[in-house]
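Q: Hi! First time asking for a complex rather than a single chain. Here are the components, and I think there are two in total. Is that enough to go on?
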Amino acid sequence: MIQVAVLGYGTVGSGVVEVIEKNREMVNKKAGEDLNVKYILDLRDFPGDPYENKVVHDFAQILEDDEVKIICETMGGVGAAYTFTKQALSAGKSVCTSNKELVAAHGPELLALAKAHTCNYLFEASVGGGIPIIRPLNYSLTAEHIEEIMGILNGTTNYILSKMEKEGADFDSVLKEAQEKGYAERNPQADVEGFDACRKIAILSSLMTGKNVDYNRIYTEGITKITSEDFAYAAFMSMSIKLLAISRDTGGRTLAMVAPCMISREHPLYMVNGVFNAVFVKGNMLGDSMYYGRGAGKLPTASAVVSDVIDCARHQGKVIMCFWDSEEAQLQGIDDTERKFFFRVKKSGEEKVKALFAGAEYVRLPELEEECGVITGTMKEKDFEALYEQLGEEKIGTRIRMEA
Amino acid sequence: MIQVAVLGYGTVGSGVVEVIEKNREMVNKKAGEDLNVKYILDLRDFPGDPYENKVVHDFAQILEDDEVKIICETMGGVGAAYTFTKQALSAGKSVCTSNKELVAAHGPELLALAKAHTCNYLFEASVGGGIPIIRPLNYSLTAEHIEEIMGILNGTTNYILSKMEKEGADFDSVLKEAQEKGYAERNPQADVEGFDACRKIAILSSLMTGKNVDYNRIYTEGITKITSEDFAYAAFMSMSIKLLAISRDTGGRTLAMVAPCMISREHPLYMVNGVFNAVFVKGNMLGDSMYYGRGAGKLPTASAVVSDVIDCARHQGKVIMCFWDSEEAQLQGIDDTERKFFFRVKKSGEEKVKALFAGAEYVRLPELEEECGVITGTMKEKDFEALYEQLGEEKIGTRIRMEA
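A: Yes, that's all I need. Here is the structure of the assembled complex.
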């Protein structure tokens, strides 16, 4: 019997208890030993909850109980969760987490701490919810040199963009509706500004390079400026607009960024709609692959946490392979990356565009007579920005990168 | 240094040597020790090949060399490959294989043999080529009760169907072209009759149930009867026709089958085109997930074999978890499964259809005036077949199952 503690009895934490309970037979078989949730740490009490007698308020009680071998940290944040995780690992207790902020902020330190105490710090649930992506990267694509990871890593923004695309609605009204339905937070900034996706691509980028990719250094742009007109142009070009989190090997350096991009109907990520997430991985031997599923939600995320618990149970006294050094990865600035760009311009600005952007293509929609869309040739980000700036008042809306 | 032997220097075998060579640094880092290909077993000689001095013709030489710890079986077939695998495992040498016939035919026996000799029999490359699917099923979706696996598992047939769909061409001409391009074998039966997909879903089904699913007991139907007219109807209904390999928990029993099916544009498998493969997995906690990539090809398949080699290297003296008992799984016969069916009927047969299939829907294409398409209500396979038979000469072509 392996005793487990769950820190934080919120959505994911209660999901963890539910998964262990509902799939008990399968979970115990795979773990090779019976698992039992001995403690649930939360500040609140849960009178009437079937597990109310497991609830404790003091982490010390868990830390000091030698029977507890595995801890699920489903609290979130980088405060108490950080402290508790360090204490747990230092005591040789493995920690499984869904906390992307903490993993992105302190991953290498916590992995090193786990290694030093011959236990494990696992975080499958921190990226892509229920989609197995950390483990495939660490255990499956081991013979690959990963050249690119491109993910739709945030369900809220993907839901909003999919709905804008499908219904021709504008950002504000779709966001409001998403908030009413509970698909978006009341304070939606972390999602719509791309901060959540940024943490997640920082984690994937670090695993891809084996070094540390600091999320503070990742170029991050949200979806708030995307309009229904942008989607009209995208549809006309058989493309879609997705918030992409990208990590790309540019030859020794790594380009890491989060931004709304146009992708074509041929790309596997094109069909990833609604709350679904997906991670596209390109290896030098394997070529293109993709991992798709529910990127969030109580049970999918909890299932990933429990798969980590099972992994810990099967590897007691062993350190599971994970290459993520504290050494900072060499990042490539976005300024020098090359691609095509899409933007909208007033009819009065067309001549100016022609003079500035040689070789650009023009897209005209019958319903938007007073403007046109422009697709530039392949050019450096900084060169584009300099020319685009010169269009001044002729510009409409924002420019969108063309990705694939 | 871990010494490795490769059995069979054909497409996959030479790919294995190439992957170990090209990604040497990454492979050795992940393996935790340097890997070296010491022997290549083949009946032929390879004068001028950079590895010609590693080529041997007698398996005994490999078997008797205590330095060789890991063997890659990339010969195929169930003859010598079976004998060599048994001998290797009995000698405590781990075996990594791409040989789906052998895994499907003797999986449980070989796994038990490996366990008895504290080594491993791994077969990531046997299904889905480079797509990590065996390892995700065995190590990642461990907290899940898997309810359904639905795969596009054969690249040749998917290429043919995609091309028929895109170009409105008929089966025979596309097959011929595929053969000329080397995408289809000169003897294409194993692919186009679904036998290859059948072996692969037998393997996935066995891992899903933990018991043995005998491929001989899997209902298998190929794509040779699918016509360009079928695709015209599918397109009109926003659907596609794919050769699906299905394993579904029907409550204690397992339905396993391979057949061309119609799937709707909303299903993740809809966009899997050309030589790409994908496996859709539905878990009771996770919901829908999908794994997508190159299902065949030298380097993708070899990369999967090498990922198994790395796994063996990291687990020397340990048996890696794999639940696949020799006990036969309880299969559900196809006769009692329920779904909708699509078929074509001559105009003269419409009244008969109306009398036989209450609640059917009708699809009329302007370019096919002398017939119509019919979609039945949900009904049992055996009930459908009985009624469909009564249509006699009024039927056109074949019936196609509506899957998702």
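A: The domain at 2-127+298-314 of chain A is CATH 3.40.50.720 (Rossmann fold). Let me know if you'd like any chain examined more closely.
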